[in-house]
Specification:
about 50% strand, 6 strands, six-stranded mixed sheet, mainly beta
């Protein structure tokens, strides 16, 4: 988790909207809407064994496909994203996460958008939006990071 957390810019935002794709995290309910501080707290809970809904930890496999770079352009990301004057690389993909825990097997499928900026010679995530295909349905607990 420390390696994953290190990929994020200080102003990074991780968003999993509820009830469709075209929502605003400032006015609509979100499944997850974390800034860097909240992401750090979430990672500390996982690593420290305090994410009780994740005990025992699930086994997961991630499949990422259809990766496409939309553009490299200056400017701020859309609603919910953090931004600055850096060139933003917008990357789209699809993801399937197979989660297995005792007696339960769940497939999480989503369209994902990343906004990346170059900082100190490395790409950093400033915005990640994960739109679950069934985010308008009743969902089980999503405590791990998609």
């Amino acid at each position: 988790f420390a390696e994953w957390e290190a990929l994020w810019a200080d102003e990074g935002v991780y968003w999993v909207p509820a009830n469709g794709e075209h929502t605003d995290p400032h006015t609509d309910v979100s499944l997850i809407y974390d800034n860097r501080s909240r992401m750090h707290n979430r990672v500390e809970r996982y690593v420290g064994g305090k994410a009780y809904s994740q005990q025992p930890p699930p086994r997961t496999v991630h499949l990422v496909a259809n990766v496409a770079v939309e553009r490299v352009a200056p400017g701020a990301p859309p609603a919910g994203g953090a931004g600055d004057a850096d060139a933003v690389r917008v990357v789209h993909s699809t993801v399937q996460v197979a989660e297995s825990r005792p007696g339960v097997r769940i497939d999480w499928v989503a369209r994902v958008t990343h906004h990346l900026v170059e900082r100190d010679g490395a790409l950093r995530i400033v915005f990640k939006k994960v739109v679950l295909v069934d985010n308008d349905q009743e969902l089980t607990t999503i405590d791990f990071l998609l």
